[in-house]
Amino acid sequence: TRTLDLAVIPGDGIGPEVIAEALTVLRAAVGDSVEVHETRYPLGAGHYLATGEILDDATLDALRQHDAILLGAVGGDPRDPKLAGGIIERGLLLKLRFAFDHHVNLRPTRLYPGVTSPLSSPGDIDFVVVREGTEGPYVGNGGAIRVGTPHEVANETSVNTAYGVERVVRFAFAEAEKRRRRVTLVHKTNVLVHAGSLWQRTVDRVAAENPDVTVDYLHVDATMIFLVTDPARFDVIVTDNLFGDIVTDLAGAVGGGIGIAASGNLDPSGAHPSMFEPVHGSAPDIAGQQKADPTAAILSAALLLRQSGLDEAAARIERAVEHDLAGRGNAARTTGEIGASIAEFVASST
Ligand code: NAD
Ligand code: IPM
Ligand code: MN
């Protein structure tokens, strides 16, 4: 039998709650056809406060050996001075994305039947954001001088390389070929002219090789308008790391809520393990109360299976989620109840 060797980082807050459900559903989806190995890594804000460790080299090397990583969410109370400056987010989450060359951050949005969008006439929402994952201002190539004085200067530099932009743009076009063949570049080329020009020229060049794909450009501010007034126009959005971060929270909201928004941090070359996680964070406001919706984590597990070549198991999860969402109504259910009902449907369809 085939094996799937998973690294699991439950993380902080609602992370462990949603990951427990995602793993139950994943196991139900693969059944006996795949031997699933789980290795748990107790990383996150809680672990750091208890041990002083964020992510050491030995742990990074151990993570590298797995087929894929499933992560809940990391990060603690933003007001905790011991966690200031995004020490966990940068030292753990971003470090993993950079170390494992996760240059594609794939974030699909679909308004499932029966799900209420906050939009009054949402239309047929089904698009995917291909967010660059290893460049932009996330590189940390900034600095400040005269800190704390009236003459302080604080710079954050967005790094955009021809190599980095081209590979993510190519991925977006390949994705479009499998979908409705429409790529929208989202940027701010009217102000960020150097990076904007590189992105636009790269898209133009790749577009010329893919004449069957319709290409569009939108400034990021106008994108906010269309995501609310006409989200059905989008098929594949390709954008940089920071714009992609912002666009995908709005995408999650219009698609029925951050509780169902999934994501994959991919190294499509397969040289490093890809990492799958909900778009949402550790939600300290509802942690420990079984109030979190595990659907985003469950759909992230489906993305993991698809990336691992287990398409049928992935599709079983997606059908089960679709079934569950369609019948949800207003009944309040716990994290565990939602997970169990999706797992049950998955098991009955294998
Ligand atoms: P958040 O996504 O954790 O929460 C925003 C709001 O959405 C909260 O009201 C929360 O209750 C709600 N929410 C989130 N997930 C939900 C779910 N599954 N079901 C129901 N409601 C849900 O964002 P935040 O408050 O800005 O961040 C909290 C912490 O998480 C911070 O430390 C942040 O840095 C971190 N964070 C981590 C990741 C990650 O690990 N991938 C992603 C985003 C934020
Ligand atoms: C996300 C998160 C992260 C990001 C943070 C926690 C570093 O918001 O995964 O969307 O900005 O990428
Ligand atoms: Mn984000």
Automatic annotation (TrEMBL):
<comment type="subunit">
    <text>Homodimer.</text>
</comment>
<keyword id="KW-0963">Cytoplasm</keyword>
<comment type="pathway">
    <text>Amino-acid biosynthesis; L-leucine biosynthesis; L-leucine from 3-methyl-2-oxobutanoate: step 3/4.</text>
</comment>
<dbReference type="InterPro" id="IPR024084">
    <property type="entry name" value="IsoPropMal-DH-like_dom"/>
</dbReference>
<keyword id="KW-0464">Manganese</keyword>
<keyword id="KW-0028">Amino-acid biosynthesis</keyword>
<dbReference type="GO" id="GO:0051287">
    <property type="term" value="F:NAD binding"/>
</dbReference>
<feature type="site" description="Important for catalysis">
    <location>
        <position position="188"/>
    </location>
</feature>
<keyword id="KW-0479">Metal-binding</keyword>
<feature type="site" description="Important for catalysis">
    <location>
        <position position="138"/>
    </location>
</feature>
<feature type="domain" description="Isopropylmalate dehydrogenase-like">
    <location>
        <begin position="5"/>
        <end position="342"/>
    </location>
</feature>
<dbReference type="GO" id="GO:0003862">
    <property type="term" value="F:3-isopropylmalate dehydrogenase activity"/>
</dbReference>
<keyword id="KW-0560">Oxidoreductase</keyword>
<keyword id="KW-0520">NAD</keyword>
<feature type="binding site">
    <location>
        <position position="131"/>
    </location>
    <ligand>
        <name>substrate</name>
    </ligand>
</feature>
<comment type="similarity">
    <text>Belongs to the isocitrate and isopropylmalate dehydrogenases family. LeuB type 2 subfamily.</text>
</comment>
<dbReference type="Pfam" id="PF00180">
    <property type="entry name" value="Iso_dh"/>
</dbReference>
<keyword id="KW-0432">Leucine biosynthesis</keyword>
<dbReference type="InterPro" id="IPR019818">
    <property type="entry name" value="IsoCit/isopropylmalate_DH_CS"/>
</dbReference>
<dbReference type="InterPro" id="IPR023698">
    <property type="entry name" value="LeuB_actb"/>
</dbReference>
<feature type="binding site">
    <location>
        <position position="221"/>
    </location>
    <ligand>
        <name>substrate</name>
    </ligand>
</feature>
<dbReference type="GO" id="GO:0000287">
    <property type="term" value="F:magnesium ion binding"/>
</dbReference>
<feature type="binding site">
    <location>
        <position position="221"/>
    </location>
    <ligand>
        <name>Mg(2+)</name>
    </ligand>
</feature>
<keyword id="KW-0100">Branched-chain amino acid biosynthesis</keyword>
<feature type="binding site">
    <location>
        <begin position="281"/>
        <end position="293"/>
    </location>
    <ligand>
        <name>NAD(+)</name>
    </ligand>
</feature>
<protein>
    <recommendedName>
        <fullName>3-isopropylmalate dehydrogenase</fullName>
        <ecNumber>1.1.1.85</ecNumber>
    </recommendedName>
</protein>
<dbReference type="GO" id="GO:0009098">
    <property type="term" value="P:L-leucine biosynthetic process"/>
</dbReference>
<comment type="function">
    <text>Catalyzes the oxidation of 3-carboxy-2-hydroxy-4-methylpentanoate (3-isopropylmalate) to 3-carboxy-4-methyl-2-oxopentanoate. The product decarboxylates to 4-methyl-2 oxopentanoate.</text>
</comment>
<feature type="binding site">
    <location>
        <position position="245"/>
    </location>
    <ligand>
        <name>Mg(2+)</name>
    </ligand>
</feature>
<feature type="binding site">
    <location>
        <position position="249"/>
    </location>
    <ligand>
        <name>Mg(2+)</name>
    </ligand>
</feature>
<keyword id="KW-0460">Magnesium</keyword>
<dbReference type="GO" id="GO:0005737">
    <property type="term" value="C:cytoplasm"/>
</dbReference>
<dbReference type="InterPro" id="IPR050501">
    <property type="entry name" value="ICDH/IPMDH"/>
</dbReference>
<feature type="binding site">
    <location>
        <position position="97"/>
    </location>
    <ligand>
        <name>substrate</name>
    </ligand>
</feature>
<feature type="binding site">
    <location>
        <position position="107"/>
    </location>
    <ligand>
        <name>substrate</name>
    </ligand>
</feature>
